[in-house]
Recover the amino acids of this structure.
C-alpha cells in the first residue's frame, strides 16, 4: 500500500512576505540561541570541574568565543551561498545541477570542517597569544589552547552538518 506524502510549500513570490519571513528567520535565530547555550554549557562545565584553576579555565573558554564565532559564521555564509546555487538549479528545473550542487556542498563542508579542525589544533596557542587587545595570560594559555582545540573540532563538525543539511 503506497502512502502519499503531502508537501507543505511556501510561495515566497506571491502575497505578503511578513507571514512567510518568520519561517525562514526562526532557524537562523535558533542557531544563534543554540550557539549561546553551547558556550554557556562550556563555561558551566569548566567552572564546576576545573578545581583550583576555575577562574583561569573560565577565562580561557571566554577568550576563544570570537574565534569560534568566526568559524561558525564562515560556514553559515558558505551554507547560504550553497543554498542560493541549489535554489537557482531547482528554479531552472535542472535536476542534475541540483544533485551536483548538493554533493559539492556536502563534500566542501566535510573537507572544510576537517581543515578547520586541523588548523584549530595547530594554531590555537599562537593565535591566542598574539591577539593584540586581549592578550591571554600565560597561566591560561595552555587551558585556552586546549579549549580552542576542542571547540574548533566541535564547531567545524556542527557547522559542516548544518551546511550539508
Amino acid at each position: 500500500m503506497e502512502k502519499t506524502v503531502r508537501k507543505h510549500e511556501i510561495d515566497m513570490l506571491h502575497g505578503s512576505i511578513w507571514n512567510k519571513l518568520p519561517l525562514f528567520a526562526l532557524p537562523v535565530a535558533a542557531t544563534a540561541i543554540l550557539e549561546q547555550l553551547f558556550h554557556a554549557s562550556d563555561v558551566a562545565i569548566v567552572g564546576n570541574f576545573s578545581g583550583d584553576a576555575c577562574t583561569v579555565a573560565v577565562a580561557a573558554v571566554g577568550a576563544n568565543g570570537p574565534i569560534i564565532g568566526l568559524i561558525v559564521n564562515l560556514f553559515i555564509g558558505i551554507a547560504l551561498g550553497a543554498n542560493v546555487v541549489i535554489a537557482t538549479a531547482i528554479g531552472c528545473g535542472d535536476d542534475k545541477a541540483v544533485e551536483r550542487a548538493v554533493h559539492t556542498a556536502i563534500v566542501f563542508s566535510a573537507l572544510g570542517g576537517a581543515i578547520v579542525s586541523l588548523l584549530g589544533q595547530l594554531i590555537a596557542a599562537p593565535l591566542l597569544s598574539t591577539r593584540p587587545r586581549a592578550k591571554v595570560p600565560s597561566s591560561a594559555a595552555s587551558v585556552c589552547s586546549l579549549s580552542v582545540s576542542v571547540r574548533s573540532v566541535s564547531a567545524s563538525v556542527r557547522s559542516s552538518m548544518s551546511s550539508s543539511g
